[in-house]
Design goal:
It is built from 14 helices and nine strands. By secondary structure, it is α/β, with parallel strands linked by helices.
Length: 297
């Protein structure tokens, strides 16, 4: 099966490589020539623009930063819609506003009869590389069933959530939980240090109990090392929380914990830390308390 792949960033590059490894023919495009070159060296073909990628492929996958980028890749001049036919299926794997996902899908349907799935991912670069992403999917069930195997070349958990937009609802729920979880891990570890107790030993003592989590195991060791290399950038998490706030306010639902974590992340952005990993939330606590949990400090 021939697949088009648009967006070869931190996530898209390894995902496209996994499609090649699984035996799919892949045609790619990105704004960055070096990313295209790397994929071509791995066995992909390339095309002049997004419209050309869409010609002669059955499915086009998009993996770009946010809603406006997805809209541009799909609907702008020389966008995917110009090269696609009514039989082309679009699978957007970017994390975007579910309200926008529904609108974009409706426009594709109206203009050319094109079907779309929204299938954002969780797991970050390491899981993108080893093909074990969690993929949450929205759209028509029969389209999902047809392309589940394709998605399984990139992820170890591929779950159908519901109609178009539902994949991004699940992703935003994920990002809300992750933000609050990192925040409370940073707060609790700083509390331990300020009380004169070794935060590393506190982490070891609690990680196997009810408070333990995948987030705790991924992020507290990074905080203790003072390692803020992304991983998942604060700027992208701000983008996700912004989408969560927009979507929840559109249905008149207050989301106070999400709003609080958004303000914490704005403080980090103010300190030019938008490109740091989201474990950088620990430095918000460091500035507030004057205490660092980094080992040896
Ligand atoms: P990135 O910024 O590294 O890569 C995005 C790529 O898309 C860039 O190379 C850019 O040049 C390209 N691009 C943008 N618009 C384009 C267009 N119109 N045509 C062609 N190329 C275009 O971003 P990323 O970290 O790979 O994230 C992609 C998506 O995955 C985001 O929605 C992000 O929230 C989500 N995500 C990221 C992670 C992570 O850990 N980085 C984890 C889960 C989900």
């Amino acid at each position: 099966m021939k697949i088009g792949f648009i967006g070869l960033g931190i996530m898209g590059k390894p995902m496209a490589k996994n499609l090649l490894k699984a035996g799919y023919e892949v045609c790619v495009n990105d704004f960055k020539q070096e990313a295209i070159d790397e994929l071509v060296a791995a066995g992909a073909t390339s095309a002049a623009n997004n419209a050309d990628v869409a010609k002669n492929v059955e499915v086009v996958i998009t993996m770009v930063p946010n809603s406006p980028n997805v809209r541009a890749a799909l609907l702008d001049e020389n966008g995917i819609i110009d090269g696609a036919t009514k039989d082309t299926v679009i699978i957007d794997m970017s994390s975007i506003d579910p309200v926008e996902s529904k609108k974009i899908s409706a426009e594709l349907k109206e203009k050319k009869g094109i079907e779309m799935l929204d299938c954002p991912v969780s797991g970050g670069e390491p899981k993108a590389i080893d093909g074990t992403l969690s993929i949450m999917c929205g759209g028509k069930k029969e389209i999902f069933d047809k392309y589940k195997e394709l998605l399984e070349a990139m992820g170890s958990s591929v779950v159908y959530v519901g109609e178009i937009g539902s994949g991004n609802v699940a992703k935003l729920a994920n990002q809300m939980v992750v933000a609050a979880n990192i925040g409370i891990c940073a707060e609790a570890m700083t509390f331990a240090k300020k009380m004169g107790t070794d935060p590393e030993l506190v982490y070891q003592a609690i990680r196997g109990g009810l408070a333990g989590s995948t987030v705790m195991d991924a992020k507290v060791p990074m905080m203790l090392e003072g390692n803020y290399n992304p991983g998942f950038r604060i700027d992208l998490h701000i983008k996700d929380l912004n989408n969560a706030l927009n979507a929840s306010h559109a249905i008149n639902m207050p989301v106070p914990m999400t709003a609080h974590m958004m303000e914490v992340m704005q403080e980090l952005k103010n300190h030019d830390e938008g490109s740091c990993d989201h474990d950088d939330i620990i430095r918000y606590y460091e500035r507030m308390t004057g205490v660092s949990i980094v080992k040896g400090k």
